[in-house]
Amino acid sequence: MTALSLSPLRIHNNVLRIRLTVSIALYGGALGSAAILISIMARTGQFDEAKHLAFTPGLITTITGAIAATLVTPLAIYHMRDNADESGSILLWLALGLGFGVASSFVTGALFPLNIVFITFAEDQIKFSELPSLVVEGAFRGIRSFFIEGAAAIYTWFLAGVLFGIGGWTIDRLNTSSNPVASKYGIWIVTVFFGLTIVAFAVLGPPETLRKFG
Question: Which of 175, 180, 199, 206 lies closest to 58, judged by CA?
């Protein structure tokens, strides 16, 4: 009887857990897209004018940042927030944000050579027949780039981690809300709003302002 009575609670917790994981993964992906763009702008020389990336390089780069963050986020959130019936504290989420920032920075660094390969291919600077070998080469170069590029962008990703913690805490609170509308629908509205706002700021914001975040 005890096992049967707990079953609905376990099912409810799993629903909350999966919903939290998916929403945080989406939010993390948006942060990843923004962070990689800003970190690249931050590398502009001191006496050079910062500029946004052109459409094709920018699109591929945002996808790279989103992939890196998404590789880090879901498993960590799913296992760290196994009791999704109760929202985590702001300190817990800031700690998760710190882990997100550090891990995503280095994973993005590892993917950076592949990012360059696909940008070069999209701009017709390499042939399709050359792509497989360059992808393999980029993957091996990613081992070195993991440390170099990851360390170079750590400040931007640290700031992204702070936003991750604050946004994650807000999303978690909505997910566990006793209000079914807030829990079921509010979480997605806030996730999309936060994510789109951050990406829009990175894509449309003044480059000279954005470079200060890197």
Answer: 199
Q: In this structure, what token pair is assigned to residue 99?
A: 């882990």
Which amino acid type is present at position 155? Y
Judged on CB neighbours under 10 Å (0-12, 13-18, 19+), 63 is: middle
Residue 82, SS3 per DSSP? coil
State the sign of the Cα–Cα–Cα–Cα dihedral 62, 139, 146, 44: negative
DSSP assignment letter at 1: -
- 49 burial type by CB count under 10 A (0-12 exposed, 13-18 middle, 19+ buried): exposed
Q: Rounded to whole angstroms, what are the CA distances from 166 to 103, 120, 163, 176, 214?
A: 18, 36, 5, 16, 20
Write the pLDDT tens digit of every residue in 62-120. Answer: 999 999 999 999 878 877 776 777 888 999 999 999 999 999 999 999 999 999 999 99
Cα 97 from chain centroid (whole Å): 10
Alpha-carbon gap, residue 128 to 140, rounded angstroms? 19
**Encoded amino acid at 67, one letter:** I
The listed range with the strongest mean pLDDT (9-13, 123-127, 166-170) is: 166-170
